[in-house]
Amino acid sequence: MNFKIELNTQKRGSNIVFHNIIFDFFKINIVERHKKSKQSQSSLEFALFKIRTINNNIINTKEGNARFKIKKNHLETYKKLIQILNSYEYKNRLIDRKNADQKLVDFILSLVISNYTI
After folding, report:
1. I want to staple 21 with a disulfide (CB 3.0 to 4.6 A). Which of 28, 55, 71, 115 is the partner?
2. Comparing C-alpha atoms, which of 19, 42, 13 is closest to residue 32?
3. How many other C-beta atoms can be found within 10 angstroms of the C-beta atom of residue 107?
4. pTM of the model as a whole
5. Per-residue model confidence as pLDDT tens digits over 4-49
């Protein structure tokens, strides 16, 4: 399955980051909310995603919600995967980028399959 990952960096002063994974027939919008501490280091507070068709129609979850919140163990896994994609090694092509991208896509697709009826 063909996909393209659009990683958007966090704007200065913002605590929200948007990412997209675009497939041939649908796209996944990921929203991250970061908590800012007094030491000005931000940490990922939560992440959620929603699925849209190419025509921007939202696909609902099995429960009828428009979005799915990544929680607990899944959030820890997501943090590790996104940390790799934001790393110096990834940005400077010192690691296999296709493998890193594929791991994130496989993880997100596993959440999609378990929570959406497509």
Report:
1. 28
2. 19
3. 17
4. 0.88
5. 999 986 677 788 999 999 999 999 999 999 887 655 556 889 999 9
> In angstroms, rounded to a whole number, what is the distance separating the alpha carbons of residues 23 and 52?
10
Which of residues 42 and 51 earns the better pLDDT score?
A: 51
List of long-range contacts for 52-59, beta carbons under 8 Å, 24+ apart = 52/26, 52/27, 52/28, 53/25, 53/26, 53/27, 54/25, 54/26, 54/27, 59/26, 59/116, 59/118
Tell me what pLDDT residue 111 has: 96
User: CA angle, 74 as apex, 72 and 78 as ends, to 5°?
Assistant: 120
